Amino acid sequence: MMTATGTAASNRRQTKDSNKTEGAGKQNLGQWGRAWEVDWFSLISVILLLSLAPFIVFFFIMACDQYQCSVTQPLLDLYSGEAKLWSIWKLTPAFSWTAAKIYAVWVSFQVVLFMCVPDIIHKLLPVYVGGIQGGARTPAGYINKYEINGLQSWIITHILWFANAYHFHWFSPTIIIDNWIPLLWCANILGYTVATLAFVKAYLFPTNAEDCKFTGNFFYDYMMGIEFNPRIGKWFDFKLFFNGRPGIVAWTLINLSYAAKQQELYGQVTNSMVLVNVLQAVYVLDFFWNEAWYLKTIDICHDHFGWYLGWGDCVWLPFLYTLQGLYLVYHPVQLSTIYASGVLLLGLFGYYLFRTTNHQKDLFRRTDGKCTIWGRKPAYVECAYSSADGHKHHSKLLISGFWGVARHLNYTGDLLGSLAYCLACGASYLLPYFYIVYMTILLVHRCIRDEHRCHNKYGKDWIRYSNAVPYRLLPGIF
């Protein structure tokens, strides 16, 4: 396996050699990783997303900063002429070196935890899967090794956060929201830097040239990525770090900063803010508790690393996934006990469905089907596929338990949890509901994209699986 420490000349020769076998790879893999060729519709979609996504993030953050979280008022003001784009921009907080220092310390600290602090939690808790773990087989046949220490990083980070808030007082717990828009500019700088570095690296010194995909279209390759698993050295994996460190570790800290701001402004933290903090913390902790399982998900197993993941993890995730808490800073909502209980139950049920469905699949994979699901021996469809090196592999697709109810019932649970976050904010404004709209689009698209990929990968075996489990998300409906 070639690493980033190899010479550039050697890597270029390897890239050229891999391009000679590209035709065979296309024949065997179809679109297992991502597209080989770009049609006009895909190109237009990519350019629109590259152009509009940063402005979408800015629009929602600006709407809270200048329009009390109304998403319609700024549009009406622009339409009527009461506001101009330039006047809105002039009122927007600018980049600051204070925010740059905060962000640089934050990312550097997470790099240190990721690279320099081996996981010990799996030694203290045998039920937790941490330490050195193998990922899924790449299209070229490689199996990468990862240091799973996300839960440990999250715990260390939050211990220091609470130690500061209640004892040391190095900085205010509201430091994040107090620098929110300047931090947005810093996150954008990192996101674009990482995406550009990954793009250039794929040409000059790819980690595994056989797992690179070049379409020849700059915009598509920049956005969707060329390298499958770009790394610096042996252990700094771009995907795992940016998918699971600066953004997701920060998610719960951002919500805590929102709660601290609510306390500062109103003298109390509302039960809606507590609900958002608790439900989203459950999701974040689940991610880190099951980080080894995450190595088998679509992000790691199929997506290449480009702007879509690099910028998305640095900017889109921390700034838009936390909109509910930001909204509640501007519009504190105290829910009735019955309503709050209903939201909590919906969120916990969504989590149960999400986690149990994923657990069934993980159990089935770990035991190679030698287990029981819902008290019975699991049923499955036997599949075969080929990797780019020409080797044939076999896989089993589960059709028992929740996986016999729908092909992506874990996504259904994810959507129910997302809806609970939004409902915790009441129904006065549209902004908190962006998340459920976005997640619905994302997960439905992911269903279709994943199934298209699986159809190309497994062929007729996938058709047999689809016939056995005919629904995607909602049994009897979709």
Could you name the key traits of this structure?
478 residues, mainly alpha, 2 domains, two-stranded antiparallel ribbon, disordered N terminus, 7-dehydrocholesterol reductase, transmembrane, Sterol_reductase_CS, transmembrane helix
Rounded to the nearest angstrom, the radius of gyration is: 23 Å
Largest sheet: 2 strands, antiparallel
Give the CA-based shape. globular
Helix content: 55-70%
Helix/strand order = HHHHHHHEEHHHHEEHHHHHHHHEEHHH
As for the number of domains, it is 2
Give the spatial strand order of the biggest sheet: 1-2
Strand content: 5-15%
**Helix run count:** 22
Which structural class matches the secondary elements? mainly alpha
Family: Belongs to the ERG4/ERG24 family.
Keywords: Cholesterol biosynthesis, Cholesterol metabolism, Endoplasmic reticulum, Lipid biosynthesis, Lipid metabolism, Membrane, NADP, Oxidoreductase, Steroid biosynthesis, Steroid metabolism, Sterol biosynthesis, Sterol metabolism, Transmembrane, Transmembrane helix
Pfam families: ERG4_ERG24
Catalytic activity: 7-dehydrodesmosterol + NADPH + H(+) = desmosterol + NADP(+); cholesterol + NADP(+) = 7-dehydrocholesterol + NADPH + H(+)
Structure notes:
- Its EC number is 1.3.1.21.
- The protein has 478 residues and is mainly α.
- It has two domains: 1-332, no CATH class; 335-478, no CATH class.
- The protein has helices at 8-20, 22-29, 40-67, 73-80, 85-90, 97-116, 121-124, 150-168, 175-178, 180-204, 218-224, 238-244, 246-266, 271-289, 291-294, 298-301, 307-320, 323-330, 337-366, 409-423, 434-458, 460-468; strands spanning 131-137, 143-148, 231-232, 236-237, 380-386, 392-398.
- The protein has a two-stranded antiparallel ribbon with strand order 1-2.
- A hairpin with a 5-residue loop joins strand 5 (380-386) and strand 6.
- The two termini are 42 Å apart.
